[in-house]
Amino acid sequence: MERLFGSVLALTILAAQLGAADDEAVALQRYQYRVGDRVRVMDEERSLLRFVVVQNNQREEKQETREKIVIFVSETLAVQKGERRPRKIQRVYERAEETKNGTTEKLPLHGQTVVIEKKNDRYVFTTGNGQALDGPAHDELDKEFNRKKEDDELDNFIPPRPLKPGETWMMDAQKLVQSFSRASREFIMDAKTAKGEGKFVESYTFGGYKYGIYDMLIQFPLKQLAGPNPMDLKSGSKMEMRILADGNVDGREPNGILTLRVTLRAFFDGPQGASASIKADGVMLQSMARLPARKRD
């Protein structure tokens, strides 16, 4: 009976924190980091890639499975007014591992403490004891902070106007194609028929802050395999992305969970009458949760 009472009490408290679903229009606002902010970030990816070739009634199939998990605590050390990203960050990597076809390896950032600081419009990376970071660990962070325009490209997904639950919006397909073409150079996309649509599913209050759930579907028909010898793809070749985002919408908290599902299908004719196909399915989960600020003397 005591355990039952405790469970009911916990549910009552949770219901009070959540509050009732809201029906008013919501304008999504991005969180602006402040000095002292600490956030735990978890990135998890799982994918299955299959390559099939059929020639002279003979079928050959290759398959690759991949899992990657990265968990770190990010602390904001310095900010600049007008800039979305902090000027200086410290990351403590609790875990960074990748598993391919059942074999697990620790990634270069596993267990490392890294300081990321913007100097002369570029971010530089040092270890916890002040030494310059080099090798694959440096390259990974350099790609994230200096080569990607992720902060600007996030605006391509954000609704351009306040939305009520149930309302939808269309994304700028041309900007989406440009964004993903930079990230994936293996395929040429059909910009004319690409489309992206989002729906504001639900608004609710949790712990006094406003949260929202967004459901987005992006479709990219594929035209060619890129590379030194481009190859035309058959009809039905496409990449599809389904994004479900559940997070703070009033710009007061960094908390949120994002789930991304990707499916890719590419069909083409190979040399000597061979018929080939590439099928890839992947899931990415990212969560961000605020931690208590560090106590300072």
What would your notes on this structure say?
- 15% of the residues are buried.
- Strands 1, 2, 3, 4, 5, 6, 7, 8, 9, 10, 11, 12, 13 and 14 form a 14-stranded antiparallel beta sheet that branches.
- Helix content is 15%, strand content 50%.
- It has helices at residues 2-18, 135-147, 150-153, 173-183, and strands at residues 38-55, 58-78, 88-100, 103-106, 113-119, 122-127, 168-170, 187-189, 195-206, 209-225, 231-232, 238-248, 256-269, 275-291.
- The longest helix is centred in the first third of the chain and has 17 residues, at 2-18.
- The chain has four helices and 14 strands.
- Strand 3 (88-100) and strand 4 (103-106) form a beta hairpin.
- Residues 1-20 have low confidence and may be disordered.
- The chain starts with a helix and ends in a 6-residue tail after the last strand.
- It has one domain (20-291).
Main beta sheet: strand number and arrangement? Answer: 14 strands, antiparallel
Overall pLDDT score: 87
Unreliable stretches (pLDDT < 50, length at least 5) are: 1-20
Proportion in β-strands: over 45%
Number of strands: 14
The number of helical segments is 4
Terminus-to-terminus distance:
46 Å
Shape: globular
What letter string, H or E per element, gives the SSE order? Answer: HEEEEEEHHEHEEEEEEE
Helix and strand content put the structural class at alpha+beta
Helix content: 10-25%
User: From the alpha-carbon coordinates, what is the Rg to the nearest angstrom?
Assistant: 22 Å
Number of domains: 1
